[in-house]
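Example record for the data management plan.
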Amino acid sequence: MAHSGNRERTRTSRRGRIVLTPVLTVVLATLLIAGAVGIALGSSALHSARGARDDVVHLALPAEASASKSTTLGVDTVEVPRLVELSLPEAKAVLAAAGLAVQVQSPTSGQAGEADRVVTQVPETGILVDMGSTVTLTLESAGATLAANSAAGQAAADNKPRFVVCLDPGHQGHSDLSPEPYGPGSKKTKAHASGGATGVGTAVPEYEVALQISMNLKKRLEAQGVRVVMTRMTNDVNISNAERALKANKVKADLFVRVHGNGSPDSSVSGVATAYPGKNRWTSGISGRSKRAARQIQTAVIAQTSAVDRGIYSSTDMVGFNWSKVPVVLVECGFLSNSVEDRLLVSPHYQDELSEGMAAGIMAYLESEATR
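Corresponding structural encoding:
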């Protein structure tokens, strides 16, 4: 989340630095090899968090999430994102955001449909390719899948999901500075929504990163039988923070998870933090459960990623908290103002680690609350 005045958060002043643990070393090695040639030719150093705000180029990437981008010998390259198990529309949106073209191999049953799923992709996830390159997708027919799993599908239909989680990818493609109340009945207001922070070196906006991580997390939760409701699945929306909370309320979510990045004027600051609502006239009934969820998620993410642990903290002035009637947390996945963490956050490999950690923490919370 950015450090401008209209941000949906309260910033902590603690400082952290990158620790090159084995997990980070492996991920960084991949990223640094891709950029080594450009570095050797004397490419410019990454901007500082404060200076880059004025002169960085904000990429106008469409719809869904973006892949890792780098420039070597003047040629833009991207890391191929993970597409397997996505629906055809989801895969097309991710590839468009990454600046890649798509070629579809239709299922044997006939023409490709929107419900068909990607079963293979060429090139594979993580391969560096030139911008504009084509990724070939092989689809599995939704009809064939349904027929092959009809018995299992009927069994699943007879059993409602045990848990419902609402995922909220932070921010959106265009800011809306019109006011909305801090909470129901409040005369104090905040801006509806903003675009968030921007990567100090990658120039990838926070709303892109948040959506890609959220889509990754959605898949992992659904694999464990959780019903996942998204507040948005594209960047071209205008949804206020209150409206996002109201959507979680409407589906009676067991947990409302807001996914964000972070930012600081100090480019050395890094790490992961998780916020939960403190007690006020709107949130007293959910503060305790939210704190338990924040602790479970923060612990699991740090264990999975080895990122700097910035802990959990409470906030009473987030609109998205004050309008929520269900337990809610906000996970700040890392600092886009830190040159190292910025590159990690747009890497599909590191996003896998973040999503795996969040999924583990969410499931631990849900299971523990079910037995209370």
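Summary line stored alongside the record: The first helix runs from residue 22 to 40.
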